[in-house]
Amino acid sequence: MYNCSENPVENLIIHHALNGKALKNRLMKKNVLLTIFSLLVLNLLCAEGPDSLYFHKSMASALKEAKKTNKMIFVDAYATWCGPCKRMNEVAFRDKAVTAFVKDKFVCLKMDMERGEGIKYARIYQVAAYPTLLFTDSNGKMLHSDAGYKDATMFLEVCRTALLPEERLTALDEKFRTGQLSAEPLLRYIEKRAILMNGSQDKAVDAYLQLLPDWKQDAAMDFIMRYVVNPGSPGFRFLLDNKKVFTNRFGASAVKGRIESVMYEELTGGNHRSGLEAMEKNIRQVYPESADRLVAKYRTTYYAAVIDARSFMEAAKSYTQTFPPEDPSEWADLSYQLSGITTHKPFLNTAMDWVREAAKKEDNFECRVAMAYLYKAMGKTRKAKGAAKKAIMWAKENGESPVPAEQFLSTLE
Fold first, then answer.
1. What are the structural domains of the chain?
2. Nearest 10 degrees: Cα torsion 123, 128, 133, 139
3. For residues 212-232, b (16+ Cβ closer than 10 Å) or e, as one string?
4. For the whole model, what pTM was predicted?
5. For the segment 84-132, what is each residue's pLDDT rounded down to a tens digit?
6. Cα Dmax for the chain
7. Residue 218 near residue 207, CB atoms below 8 Å
């Protein structure tokens, strides 16, 4: 997750549900603070007042109302730690012009994308930035989306766009798919997709680059530096192969930062768009000194992402034998990844052994949470709840955030 600048494109707080990241970072940053006060505020914001919107608290409730009134649904996809989300609550959602317009046109739903049903819908709607503003039909089908802080005027513009079938993001998706977008409309489409921070602009970025005759021209290099986020794409390969040219234009620090940012998201992320062979090639070019270990580790996260449990176990065995993890949290991380891709008892039992051995060396929060996920994968719900509750108690006793375990527990109850 990141705190971003006031730039409309950059002013996003981003959360990636990272399949390959260390478990402590994947589940939730430890410095996230959830206070009783902040939760009270969020609950109060769901209540209707004279100058505020009424937000439903569940998708089922919003869908029922939308079908009854024949309205679209507006979903405020937020996270409790998100500053811009709170600012929109205080400013845009209490503006009189906004409340009058939105109440007339939409059924509103406020959803914490890191708790309860929000976790599922974050995956369905590919939410990667907060706040994300989602617009669906009365059946929950996505029609339009935007992201980042919006003041009242900007938010009204987003709402009006969502009401225009030809201007919605899904309409632009179809125009791109059928080859109806020329260069300028294609660039605007890429900008709309890029602001969502979920990598959904990749194909359009590749298509736009094919329209440019010389990728070493300033405009092409500017485009690559700004929009290329797939390390397996032709644009990123061009950046790596022409690093000196880019450095002459943007400076060594900016180019290095851009390359490592793209690589980091792929190494720790869940999409793995570049493919195993292409990413291994990138790793050896960008990180030659630590390439062997990074490649070995990447294979585990890659096979977890493509849900290949057998290959994951082979890669995990190879990685841990060649580079034995010293940090117990790394064992917990491997176990957590496995819990999400298989119910095969022998594999899960092996992972449980990993965690138990790691916990003997250091009894930490990550190991306790990993145990809870493994029990759930085994179908042992009662033990999963017990492990999660013990993890919550441990976190509180040791001054750590219990939120990841609380989030997990909410999915079981």
1. 33-163 (3.40.30.10), 178-256 (no CATH), 287-410 (1.25.40.10)
2. -10
3. eeebeeeebbebbbebbbbbb
4. 0.73
5. 999 999 999 999 999 999 999 999 999 999 888 998 999 999 999 999 9
6. 64
7. no
